[in-house]
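Comment thread on ticket #2218

A.B. wrote:
> Attaching the input chain for the structure job we discussed in standup.
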Amino acid sequence: MGQAALAIGSEDKLPDVIDEKTARDFCGKCFDEGDWEVLAGKEGLLKKQTFLNTIQIRNHAPSIVTWLEFWRIDELAERFIELEVMSADDLLDISPTILQKFKDSIKSVQKKHFEKAMAHAAYLKVKPVGYMPWRPFALEMWLESWRLQRILPGLIVHGIDVKEDIPDFLEKFWPELGMRLLEEKRWREAVQNLFSLLKSFNFLAQRKAAVPTLNTWLKSLHLGALKDRLEAFGAVQLMDLDDVKDHQLKELGLNQLQQKHWHIGMNQVKAAKREAMADGYADLPDLYGFLENWRLHALYDKVTELGALTQQDLLDLEPEDFGLLKMKPLEEKRFHWMMIALEEEFEAPPPGEELTEENMTRRMWRKQQAEKDGFKQVDVDFKSKLRATDMEEDNILNQNKITKRQTKDIGKKTKRDKARETASKTQMAKTDISLDGTARSTGNRSARSEGKKSARQDTGRNTGRSSRR
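C.D. wrote:
> Ran it. Output below, let me know if you need it in another format.
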C-alpha cells in the first residue's frame, strides 16, 4: 500500500466510487493492474466497499502460500521455505545479499510481481492489521490443539494441506476419516469454531487453541533443526522452553530470522505454560494414571478406542454413551463419581477465585467458544444428573429392601400367627378339658358330700329313734 493508505482515517476519506487514479494513489506500489481490470470491469469504476473488502482480504492472508497466490507468484513457495520465510514481513529481515541473489534467480515477470509483494510486506510491517507479526496456523498445529492429529493422513489424502481448506471438505466425506466417537465430537466443534475464525479473518494462535507438541511448534517456525539440541537441554513439552535461559539460547546459534521466529513463538510457549498450569498437566497424572487412581485402569483401552487422549476428553461422553464401556456394577459406580470429579476440576474456576483468562481450563474455553458460536456442545451437569441417577438407584434398592423385608415380615407374621392360633386352640382345648375335669371332680365331691351328709342324717335319725325307744 502507498503512503495514503498509512494515513490515519485514510479509508474514511475515500469517495463512494473509486476510479483507477484514486486506487493507484491509495495502493502505491501495491497496485495490481491485473486485479484492477478484473474487479473494475469495462466501466473502470469500483464501489468503495468492494475496494476495501479486496484490500482487507489481501491484508489477512491465512498463510504464506495464500499471500503469494495474491501476487501470482505461488510457484515460488518452495523457494520461500528454503529461505525459512514463514510470513510476509520476513522478507524484510533476510540478509540483503541473500535477497538479491533470490531476485536475480527469478524470471522477469516474477520480479515485477515480487516488487509489489515486497511493497505490501513493508506496509504490513509498518501497520500490522492482526496478521503480523503472528504466523498462521499450520494444519498439524490446529489438529493437535483439538487432539485430532490421528486424522491428518486422511485429510492429506483429500487434498487438504492448510486448515483453510476444511470449509470445502464436505460432510459426506467425513466418514472416510475413520473418526472415533469422541474424535468426531471434537471435530464438529473444531470445524464450527474454524468457520467463526475465518469469517472474522482471525488466523492467529489463540490463547486456548494453540498448544501443539514441541516438534510441531518447531516445524511451524522453520526451527525443526533445533529439536535434538533442545531435547539435549531436557525439553519435553512446549512449556519447557519457557525455562531456556539467554546463554542457552545463544548456544543454539540462531541467525537473525530464526531469532525473530523464536521470539514470536515464545508468546505461544507462555500461553502453553498458562494452559498447562490451569489444566494441571504439571501435577495431574496422564489418562492411564488418572483411571488407575479410580481403580478404573481396566477401562483404558475402551476409552482410547472411543477417542479419548486426555482426562478432559471424557467430559465429551454423555450418560447415554456410558454403556459402550461395558462396565461392571462397581466400576460404573466409581466411574460416575470420577466424572463428577472431572467436572469439578475442569469446568469450574479454582476454589475461591473468579474465572479469568489465566485460570480458564481448555474445557472452559471450549464451552465459552461454543456458546459464542452457537454450537451445541455436550453440556451435562454430571454432578446433579449422576447423583440423581445414583439416588434413584439407591431409592429403588432401598425400596426393594423394604419390600423384601415387609414380605419377609409378613411371612414371619403369618407363621407366628398360625403358631399362636394353634397354641391358643391347644390351650383352650386343655382349658376345656381341665374345666370339664374340674367340673366332674367338683360334682363327685358334691355328690359324695351330699351322700355323707345324708348318711349322717340317716344315722342321726336312727340313733334318735333308738334312744326314743
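A.B. wrote:
> Thanks. Noting for the ticket: The longest strand covers residues 17-18.
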